[in-house]
Amino acid sequence: MSQRATPPMAVVTGGASGIGKAAVERFVDEGYIVAVLDRSRTGLDRLTQSQIGPRIRAFPCDLAEVGTLTPLAGRIVEEFGPPRALVNNAGVCLYADITETTDEMWETSLNTNLVGASALIRGFVPGMKGVNGAAIVNVASRNALSSSPRAATYDAAKAALLALTRTLAVELGGDGIRVNAVLPGFVDTPIHGDLLEDRGFVENYLRLIPLNRIGRPEDIANVIFFLASEGAGFVTGQGIVADGGQMSGQNYVKVFGERDSFRMRQETDT
Ligand code: NAI
Fold first, then answer.
1. Which of 34, 38, 50, 263 matches a 20 to 30 Å C-alpha distance to 76?
2. Which of 116, 121, 147, 144 is nearest to 239 (CA)?
């Protein structure tokens, strides 16, 4: 009697919305069962009731409650086996002037964006060591490399997540676990509230993006899946920026308008 192969499992945090949801859909398309960890019960319900519901295992949890996460990872491994891919995607961005940034904000931001990911890694890694092609993908931000005002806790947390990515690549490489990060630029997701409805804002922002468009969640999900897949089998410890070229440089003409001094002039004496 032939036995059906067990489908691989991916774990995606913050998978009920935006980039995480697009990643969940991509993993399902590729034949994975996906454990989705998210604090939004409504978002999780929507996912389990959708067409891909049978491929989803939903785990309501708060990444900021770090102490609950390693035991949760243990329960997931016990029930479903270790994941082949762990995507630490959930994140929050709390804006405030530095003088208004409270200890609570630091705690929430660092726990959600960084320490929570580390607690899950601690829980999943022992099992992942036995999985062929195991990979961790951390969703950082272009803010890990280039800061924004009023975003101290976010910028620091994402820069630390990128550093953690490199540390773990070195530490876990011998166990066959690859660890990479994706650093998205501006992507159209609910994290921005109604900002993208402000056409003036969008027009101004596009001046910073060589590809001249805001990112789509699928743009980032594609990179996440690539980094988790065999196609990236010799890639570890890297942060891939997916931002439409924003970090590559500024197009002065787009930012400041046409100026004579932006053109090459060949002065000729007459
Ligand atoms: P989103 O707001 O659409 O989705 C975030 C998901 O994470 C939501 O489902 C939310 O319920 C969940 N979540 C947030 N805090 C949580 C917690 N404490 N515990 C459990 N779940 C929690 O946001 P988006 O844009 O999809 O963000 C995903 C990741 O991408 C984040 O880490 C964000 O920092 C990063 N990112 C997003 C960019 C963008 O322009 N959208 C740019 C750069 C990075």
1. 50
2. 144
CA of 74 to the centre of ligand 1 (A): 23
pLDDT score at 2: 52
How far apart are the C-alpha atoms of 106 and 184, rounded to whole Å? 22
Label residue 263 by pLDDT band (50, 70, 90): confident
Examine the residue annotation and report whether 154 is marked as an active-site residue of this protein. yes
Residue 133, both tokens: 């092609």
Over 70: is that where the pLDDT of 266 sits? no
Question: Two tokens at 140?
Answer: 């950082």
Going from the C-alpha of 28 to that of each of 96, 101, 116, 248, the distances in angstroms are 37, 39, 24, 33
- Helix H, strand E, coil C: the string for the chain is CCCCCCCCEEEEECCCCHHHHHHHHHHHHCCCEEEEEECCHHHHHHHHCCCCHHHEEEEECCCCCHHHHHHHHHHHHHHHCCCCEEEECCCCCCCCCHHHCCHHHHHHHHHHHHHHHHHHHHHHHHHHCCCCCCEEEEECCHHHCCCCCCCHHHHHHHHHHHHHHHHHHHHHHHHCCEEEEEEECCECCHHHCCHHHCHHHHHHHHCCCCCCCCECHHHHHHHHHHHHCHHHCCCCCCEEEECCCHHHCCCHHHHHCCCHHHCCCCCCCC
Ligand 1 center to 192 CA (angstroms): 10
- pLDDT tens by residue, 203-250: 999 999 999 999 999 999 999 999 999 999 999 999 999 999 999 998
Q: Is 92 in the pocket of ligand 1 (CB under 6 A)?
A: yes
